[in-house]
Amino acid sequence: MITVKGLDFTYQKSNKQAIKEIDFDIKQGEIFGFLGPSGAGKTTTQRLIIGLLRGYEGKVEVLGKERRLWGKEIYENIGVAFDFPNLYIKLTGEENLKLIRSYYKNKADNIHQLLDKVGLLSDKDKKVEGYSKGMKMRLNFIRAIMHEPELMFFDEPTSGLDPVNAKIIKDMIVNLKASGKTIFLTTHNMTVAEQLCDRVAFIVDGKISVIDEPKSLMLKHGKRDLKLEYLEEGKLVESHFDLQNIGQNNNFFEILKHKQIKTIHSQEATLEDVFIKLTGRELL
Ligand SMILES: Nc1ncnc2c1ncn2[C@@H]1O[C@H](COP(=O)(O)OP(=O)(O)OP(=O)(O)O)[C@@H](O)[C@H]1O
Ligand SMILES: [Mg+2]
């Protein structure tokens, strides 16, 4: 769906290259995440692919065609929700969606259902200027997907949302994937990346340092260690066992058989640990 090769980009009036020799590809039906700290180049990369920024070097192929060769028709096939919602604040939620619907060939006939899905049905007649940031984010999200595009770009889709609303959006993203859509999202939220992404790219200072599945990164960089806590003479005791050949470890089985076990945990790394280890940077 997307192939990027040797992508370089510098903002006008800036002497610093924002994107440096980036390579990645995104397959159909995949949720691909760009994970990196503030200023890493996540939004810039998305804006280049979407066509909101011009003047790049390298190859950016979207839906089988070089980005430069696409005209406006690409917007029928892609959906974009950025972290600064661009909505008509003097119109109501429903009026916004109706107006935006008129721009597309594929016209949504389920506006109320979509509003209901993100908990905005009862606010549909309220002007958007009276919406909270979270409400705007949710409306902006439906705005991006209502013409049912094949490929979607979400920039920090859960930023500013409380846990309940963040979950609504995350579940919708998972459902979009289940219906065959391809999703490219950016985040600096490790949990979002872990929960949603099939693959993540770590990006720092305009460069990608690794692309892999979250689970495989966490396993590769974690300790092959199992932590056991159990009671011995009324006291909590902690023991560690190598996961290698744990099935043959008699000490381990003796404890399991004879002690009161309180906790058992394998010690795979969190995505955050892996990020810090590989990039030397925190994800703030
Ligand atoms: N309009 C602009 N003009 C000049 N430089 C810019 C512009 N927008 C971004 N930059 C610079 O480009 C680099 C990448 O910024 P970008 O917005 O892509 O980062 P990001 O990873 O999306 O960060 P955040 O997590 O804060 O959204 C940064 O060094 C930033 O200062
Ligand atoms: Mg950004």
Task: Please give a handful of descriptors for the protein shown.
284 residues, alpha/beta, Rossmann fold, 4-stranded antiparallel beta sheet, 32% helix, globular, binds magnesium ion
Task: Explain this structure.
The protein folds into 2 domains: 2-218, 3-Layer(aba) Sandwich (Rossmann fold); 225-267. By secondary structure, the chain is α/β, with parallel strands linked by helices. β11 (225-232) and β12 (235-242) form a beta hairpin. The longest helix is centred in the middle third of the chain and has 16 residues, at 163-178. Strands 6-7-8-3-9-10 form a 6-stranded mixed beta sheet, sandwiched between helices. It has a 4-stranded antiparallel beta sheet with strand order 2-1-4-5, covered by helices on one side. A 3-stranded antiparallel beta sheet has the order 12-11-13, covered by helices on one side. It has helices spanning 42-50, 74-77, 93-101, 111-117, 133-145, 163-178, 190-196, 214-220, 250-258, 271-279, and strands spanning 2-10, 17-26, 31-35, 57-62, 65-66, 78-81, 151-155, 182-187, 199-204, 207-212, 225-232, 235-242, 260-266. It contains 10 helices and 13 strands. Bound molecules: adenosine-5'-triphosphate and magnesium ion. Adenosine-5'-triphosphate binds next to α1.
